[in-house]
Write a structure and sequence with these properties.
The complex is a heterodimer of chains A (about 110) and B (about 120). Chain A has about 110 residues and is mainly β. Chain A contains no helices and ten strands. In chain A, the strands form two sheets. In chain A, strands 1, 3, 4, 8, 9 and 10 form a six-stranded mixed β-sheet that branches. A four-stranded antiparallel β-sheet of chain A has the order 2-7-6-5, with no helix packed on it. Classes of the chains: A mainly beta (about 110), B mainly beta (about 120).
Chain lengths: ~110, ~120
């Protein structure tokens, strides 16, 4: 599962700094959103989710923010570590309709030493 | 280890050929999803099966087909292969019928190269 060759925007962050990864979703009717992390050689892994009746949700070192007005989702990673180096995908779902998880293009997070 | 097993891990074949990719979901998971990941398109949803029944279809070509068997494993069949079919094909599973929990468990993918 090599994702290195993907043509993706890259965010470079100093180790220890906070990272903010942004995502614009497409369907204003989407009511459920997820962030996935894909490390090199592996499949995507669930990080955190948020439903449309919330605008913020916190996990361990991660926070997801949802702005439905502008159809924008962000993932904040606190105190970025080398192990956070990966491709991050946002995904949207319209749960009452077609039951499909639609992934965004992804952002590569590169950690600078 | 997600518990989802995909075989083969790598496959090289020629245009016009047909291949079958196999997925064994996590124990107890009834839903299987197939995704295609290519360089320019990211993760594209292909199809979703729940307990043997097709639940949702995405951008799956007519040359591609899938099924989920009674033992819940799934196969993705790709025929009349073209160069553009070269990609990583991921299988994911979840326990639920719908996508309400969002937590899909992905396998490590099958890398298909069409020459």
């Amino acid at each position: 599962g090599e994702s290195v060759g993907l043509h993706l925007p890259t965010l470079s962050v100093q180790e220890g700094d906070n990272s903010i990864i942004n995502c614009a979703y497409s369907n204003s009717a989407s009511d459920y959103f997820i962030w996935y992390k894909q490390e090199s050689g592996k499949g995507p892994q669930f990080i955190i989710d948020i439903r449309s009746n919330m605008d913020k949700r916190q996990g361990q070192r991660v926070t997801v923010l949802l702005n439905k007005t502008v159809k924008h989702l962000s993932l904040q990673i606190a105190a970025t570590q080398p192990g956070d180096s990966a491709v991050y995908f946002c995904a949207e779902i319209y749960t009452n309709r077609d039951d499909k998880i639609i992934f965004g293009k992804g952002t590569r997070l590169h950690i600078l030493p | 280890d997600s518990g989802v097993t995909q075989t083969p891990k790598h496959l090289i074949t020629a245009t016009g050929q047909r291949v079958t990719l196999r997925c064994s979901p996590r124990s107890g998971d009834l839903s299987v999803y197939w995704y295609q990941q290519s360089l320019d398109q990211g993760l594209q949803f292909l199809i979703h099966y729940y307990n043997g029944e097709e639940r949702a279809k995405g951008n799956i070509l007519e040359r591609f087909s899938a099924q989920q068997f009674p033992d819940l494993h799934s196969e993705l069949n790709l025929s009349s292969l073209e160069l553009g079919d070269s990609a990583l094909y991921f299988c994911a599973s979840s326990v639920s019928r719908g996508t309400g929990t969002g937590e899909l468990f992905f396998g490590e993918g099958s890398r298909l190269t069409v020459l």
